Amino acid sequence: MRICARRVLFSRNTMRSEQGSVTVLAVFMFVAMLMVAGLAVDMMRYESERARLQGVADRAALAAAMMRDNPANPSPEAIVRSYFAAEGLEHLLDRDGAITVRTVGGAREVIVRPETNIRTIFMRLSGIDSLPMQVSAGASEALAQINFEIVMVLDLSGSMGDPQSRIINLRAATRDFVTNMLEGNTDGRVAITFVPYSTEVVMPAGTLSLFNNLDNPPSGNLTNAYCVDFRDWGTVTDSINAPMFRRNCVYPLDHAPVRPYINDLNRALAITDALAPFGTTSIDLGVRVGGLFFDPTIRPIIEHLINANEVSPVFAQRPLDWNAPSKYRAMILMTDGRNCCHGDHEPQANRKPTLEIQDADTIASCNALKAQNITIYSVAFEAPPEGVALMQACASAPSYFFNSSGRELVNAFRQIATHMQSQALRLTQ
After folding, report:
1. Positive/negative CA dihedral, 312, 313, 319, 320
2. How far, in Å, CA of 42 to CA of 258, rounded?
3. Fewer Cβ close by (within 10 Å): the C or N end of the chain?
4. pLDDT tens digits, 221-279
5. How far apart are CA 61 and CA 140, in angstroms?
6. In angstroms, rounded to a whole number, what is the distance separating the alpha carbons of residues 137 and 114?
7. Domain parsing of the chain, residue ranges
8. CATH fold of 144-427, please?
């Protein structure tokens, strides 16, 4: 019995000893797993902060490089610091060499090199309390080498006046945009064409006769037949020979006609202030007419307008060739509604059999423009679902679509202007 008791006691002691060893091993493995997982967590935090810092540095360098020389403007250094301050990161620039501004080949170059240390959470268990971080971003100015051809296709249908705040916000947004793009640019590098549309689009006086394939109105009545419509919606080249026909306009010839190739800021602001709502909505027509002013075959029309003192002589030989170097072509397409010139609307507004056909024609024209490397920024302004979907389909990319309301429209147009200007810059770091 004593021998059995000793054996039982020995077995129990052995089990206790082995249990203790297993516990120590489990703790060791847990700590090892924690360190490995912690390493991944710390590296993910590091990469997230690095990407954030790189993004701020890139945006700051671009903005500082493209700011025009003007005593009223902040210095490039101040612009860079303002971007970092907005993110709570200005202290990362508090060292010599963090911001460098120099002139290279007549162009401004801005280089930003912020530095910081990222404190670790788990890696400190291995004696690593922080990880150093330095990013570098640079941009050089190339704005003087770029020609901008911009077409603003703006919805002036009656709903833009109800509520009245819509047209007020559109004027404010357009004023902000043209000021950003035209201020100080009178040499022809930036041209803005205004294409107001509603039920119809009114071409500039005396230009319809210059098209080679233009038919009279289907009614045969030439009274007020200065509006235009199209038979082909999927082609934006060879526009001077495009199959077109006249329409009997509902509104006077001087009521919001197309204003091509504007480079004078005061004139652009006057056109903006005169924008007024009327009629229904033909988004398809706005896009298709807007596309004319990217096509070099309409140069006779621009020449006619130069001779009539409607367009500056600096725009002779415009539009540029499709394959011309150093250019940026873009359309801003804006609506607060949906296509509605179809079906059982009043006769003068009944242009298409169905909404589906009108939407399909709109998208066909948008796709034809994008095929010619025209960038389309689309803006749905307090629009219904059908209008939102159409604007999304027309945009060059999801990030080029804006769904805005109220004063947000001003910010949307401002972002578009900033993006356009950034296309004239190249990152150098």
Report:
1. negative
2. 58
3. N
4. 888 888 899 999 999 999 999 999 998 888 776 678 999 999 999 999 999 999 999 88
5. 8
6. 9
7. 23-140, 144-427
8. Rossmann fold (3.40.50)
